[in-house]
Amino acid sequence: MDKKVIFIDVDGTLYQHDKAVSLKNVQAIKEARKNGHFVFICTGRNLCSISKEIINIGFDGIVCSAGGHVEVEGKEIHSSYIPSKTVHHILDIFNRNKMEYALEATKHTFMSKHMADYFLEDITNKPNSEKARLIEAIHNEFTSKSMDDYQEEHIHKISFVSKDEASLEEPRKLLEKDFFFVIHELSQTITINGEIILKKTNKATGIMHVLDFINKKQEDTIGIGDSMNDYQMIEYVAYGIAVGNACQALKNISDMVARDAKDDAIYHVFKEMGII
């Protein structure tokens, strides 16, 4: 088969938050690359929050911060940021609506005072994959910082937590012109979590930067994801795959619905498609 360029989301796709990356998925990625396919991480995580366990699997590169930072073979080929003035404008709006937030830079995540409290009081509920990612970030003392430490570092995207939909009305009204509001699938929860991403920057645009750099075509691409920040990726790639535990909106636009992430989804997709 033609050599493919494969983009794999991390949280809720490569693995689920309560489990390690399975040996079968690791084997599949290594074998796919040995067979001449390109395999990239494509995640909403910022670079500092991608664990060594994941990096050491071996990938051809990384699309992280939902397209805000792109590397191929360890070389940065693209970075985009929210202008500093706009960051402060967003924080004014979020503070006014009593929302908590995390500013995601390349090397650190800066969290508002009560961000952790919102999650910890909600910890008894099953978190969606993006909430699980932020809970993990809260406990990472090496990369997680308070807003007191923020010194105008360049910010790729901003995650947020809100108590209710009413608190999101003004932010949406004032910011939707320039930002995608990604609301992650709700379960039985007392908070709403999501993120805002520049409309000119998303996982699809990150993939475009990769393809330009390695001189490959869109028709060669495969994307695998689970949440709403994978939406543009699944729309853009030639063949979009939602894992079985993905939100329904993503399944609706996918070419294939695979097994749940916990059931070695990557391995079985690669087997079924003849990649390995």
Write the layout of secondary structure elements.
Elements: E1 5-8, H1 23-34, E2 38-42, H2 52-55, E3 61-64, E4 69-72, E5 75-79, H3 84-96, E6 100-104, E7 109-111, H4 115-120, H5 129-138, E8 144-146, E9 157-162, H6 169-175, E10 179-183, E11 192-198, H7 203-214, E12 221-225, H8 231-236, E13 239-242, H9 248-253, E14 256-257, H10 265-273
Parallel strand pairs: 1-2, 1-12, 2-3, 7-8, 12-13, 13-14
Antiparallel strand pairs: 3-4, 4-5, 6-7, 6-9, 9-11, 10-11
Helix pairs in contact: 1-10
Features:
8-stranded mixed beta sheet; Hypothetical Protein, Haloacid Dehalogenase-like Hydrolase, Chain: A, domain 2; 6-stranded mixed beta sheet; alpha/beta; Rossmann fold
Extended strand count:
14
Q: How many distinct domains?
A: 2
Helical fraction equals 25-40%
The separation of the N and C termini measures: 10 Å
CATH topology of the largest domain: Rossmann fold
- Sheet/helix structural class: alpha/beta
Give a quick account of the main beta sheet: strands, pairing sense, barrel closure.
Answer: 8 strands, mixed
Task: Give the name of the CATH superfamily of the largest domain.
Answer: HAD superfamily/HAD-like
Task: Average the pLDDT over all residues and give the rounded result.
Answer: 90
Number of helices: 10
Contiguous uncertain segments of 5+ residues: none
**In percent, how much strand structure appears in the residues?**
15-25%
- CATH structural class of the largest domain: Alpha Beta
> What would CATH call the architecture of the largest domain?
3-Layer(aba) Sandwich
Q: Give the SSE order as H and E letters.
A: EHEHEEEHEEHHEEHEEHEHEHEH
Main-sheet strand order equals 5-4-3-2-1-12-13-14
